Amino acid sequence: MSIFPRRLVHGTGVPMELDDTRLLIATKEPIKQDDLAARLKQARVVLEDAGDEQDARQLERINHTADRFWIRSADREPLDEGRIGLLREVLGDVLAWIGPVYRLGGGQSRSIGRSALVAPLPHVVLVRFRRGVEGPVVRALTSAARGLKVTEDRERSKYLNGLRYFVIDDPAQVNAYQLRDLLLEGQREQVADVRLETMPMVVPAAVIPNDTLWAQQWDMVQIEAPAGWDISTGSASVVVCVLDEGCDLTHPDLVFAGTGINLGSMSGDGSPTGSHGTACAGIVAATFNNSAGVAGVAGSAQILPAAFVTWSDAEIAAGISWATTNGADVISMSFGGYYVDPLIVDPSIVAADAAGLVMAAATHNYDSNSITYPATHPLVIGVGASDQVDDRKSPASPDGETWGSNFGPEISVVAPGVLVPTTDRQGADGYNVDGSGGTWAGVVYPSFGDAAGDYVTVFDGTSAATPHVAGLAALLLSEYPGLTNAEVRRIIERTADKTGTTAYVETAGYDSGTWNQNMGYGRISVRKALDLADLMIRDWPGDTGTEPSAPSGGNFWNFADVVVRIFDDDVFVPSDPLQSQNLEIGQTNYLYVRVRNVGPREARNVTVDARLTPYVGTQFAYPTDWTAVDGTHLAPTPMSATFATIPAGGEEIAKFSISAAQVEVLHSEAWHPCVVTSVNADNDYAFATAAFVSNPVVTRIGNLAQRNLSLINVLADTGAAFPFLAGNALNTDRFLELVINRTALPRAATLVLDLDGANVYFPEVDVDAHVPGGGGGGGGHDGCSSGLVFLDRTRVRTRFGCCEGVLTLEKGSRFDCVDKRRVRDVSVKGGDVVVRGGKRFALITDDIAVVRIEKAAGQLLPLVLEARLPAGVEAGRQLEVSVAQRDESGQVVGGASGLFITA
């Protein structure tokens, strides 16, 4: 088959190898498959699906159209130029063109069989011209095509985001592959890029069809739709584009926002080109509570149908763009393929996202850890399929069907994808012809749906899962029209139920909660998504509730919406330390905590809680530091800390009293106390399912906040101590870094970090309690009561490495346990380590210094910053020293600040 290149490179960079046993042919006019098959027989070629069993055709549908057909040699031998010539002769004037078939390379190719076969169309080039080039564009193309006629399809170009769609009149003379090379080689001054339109051999719909009415809609029960419908069943003002094979426009259970479009002709309407789209539309929005058929997730919303003809990447791009400009709020895409050129489709996705549309796409049904495009695009919600036991659909699922839902790093959520009841093309045109059953995916079903053939009860695949998510997005936009598309996605992800057998873990880059690659953030919940309240305590003035929060400079311990007052005077100014963190000894003080509801729904049964620690820590862990009541975790007395409701967008200030006795504890030994606070509600589902194993929990979980409290008054030309605890019992890193900021101190001030002498400041804190291997009690370390002393001279035969010998221990030799409280190796950037009187200090000389400390896993490090202020500092000046703790990855996990006010 030398008329076509043996190898091409796909737009994604993946190599494609010619399959010389197959072709894609186009006819000038539509032709019946039976008539075409008879002609093909004369050239010893057959339609690709000739001989396929009915079950196989349902599972893997060949992408024939009315005038394009996939063929192969009947004997599976290569189609050489002689046989192609014979094919041209047999088809005669019926033939429009012949195109080659290629197999996409890559690891997924072997596992997806014919789904890896594609045809870069031989008669189409998509050209992006350089900015500012207006000139005789078509004339340049015609010149490059050696005088052959090249025509722009302006209607298609309009929807391709700057790519121009050109059709070659006679690809037998100069085909698209040759024209692409000619343009890129000879027209570089005008042409920036040239792409090929790629058509897949197998319909890429993530489908395995197989619903009858509410009693059989187990999927809606599983996603808690009935409870969600108490809040909303959707709004007719919300439109979901079902980008698929069009829809049955006369189906009595579907309501349409418009007649749609045929993406093959870029005209007409969205009438069916297959049965898949009608089934997807029913899951999205089959009319609710109309005493007929099934109920869709958003049964009062409307459908906008767009019908693929070839399923090519150019059609996908045009379909997304058309939906964006024709009133869609959500796009449901129950398809995906490795054949798609992202550079053709990506601009349409980006434009749709910028316009505020929510997009959901299927991960596909190959039981593979390689998800298909467009579900791989970060602006698209990648949807996998769950089974009837709430796990990822796999060949081992209880339904017995042999397919599995694709999984991997791009998966967002899952939804039911087996035996889903939905709408079907009416009568005998759809999946269900007359209600009788048969074999499907290796399982025998007595019935495929109702006797009239208007509904199907066995619609399957990630194709079935995706419209559940699109419907949920439509419900959220119906009930809360002010939500952005990013907020809709975040709500869907944060309220998903953590079902299945795979553990959910906190994963870098997945900010909507715990996640795994099989189930994403979990199986969607309509009830929880519509009922979500999202409570928060601001960590800093610019905190909007986005998790993780990103306070300027990483400081979240000095500016939280937490205030301490000497009097119960309702003054709430968290940005001013003098009005927010000063405790008065000898009297009752008051703690105010401002909570906000940034969720879409009213918060119910709101509870605010707080704990006071007598010491500053640079890292706190949930739940211990927020819930314990002991010598180092004091509970202030609630005055008004519960609220029946807080409306969406509303706020309340909780109040606590701090007794004089508690204040005395907090101020003893010149400690610097901290307060940690939390808020929860019955319907703050995201907090209820959050995990707290990573750090820092305070900025990652909006329901938690902390703040330093006390002030220190010092005289000029005197010293002041700022003791604190670094590390945490749950921090297993080998190293930590302390970033010390002394920019607010006078240059003449001396600042040192005492590395060995801070134990005296923490008599009530057991710093050994959580060190792995430590006994956590007794008079020594690691549970040892004393070291080992040799009373007499001792000789021990032993081996060190490869040397065997006798070790002699003189009388009085000792073996002592290592002091795990001691700071190990230290390095300083921006200062130096000095030794004074046998004790180590880090001398901080630069405005910002980094102290790197080696430690044991789980070790708490007692440290103290000692500042000496020079003479001449005016009275009343506020001088702050701040310390931020970073983990081994460089992430700020906590910190503390000391504020010195000169007297």
From TrEMBL:
InterPro entries: Peptidase_S8/S53_dom, Peptidase_S8/S53_dom_sf, Peptidase_S8_His-AS, Peptidase_S8_Ser-AS, Peptidase_S8_subtilisin-like, Peptidase_S8_subtilisin-rel. The keyword Protease applies. SUPFAM superfamilies: Subtilisin-like (SSF52743). The active site is at D244 (charge relay system), H276 (charge relay system), S463 (charge relay system). Keywords: Hydrolase, Protease, Serine protease. GO terms for molecular function: peptidase activity. PROSITE patterns: SUBTILASE (PS51892), SUBTILASE_HIS (PS00137), SUBTILASE_SER (PS00138). GO terms for biological process: proteolysis. Residues 237-522 form the Peptidase S8/S53 domain. It comes from the Bacteria. Signal peptide: none annotated. PANTHER family: CEREVISIN-RELATED, PEPTIDASE S8. Belongs to the peptidase S8 family. This is Subtilisin family serine protease. It comes from Cellulomonas humilata.
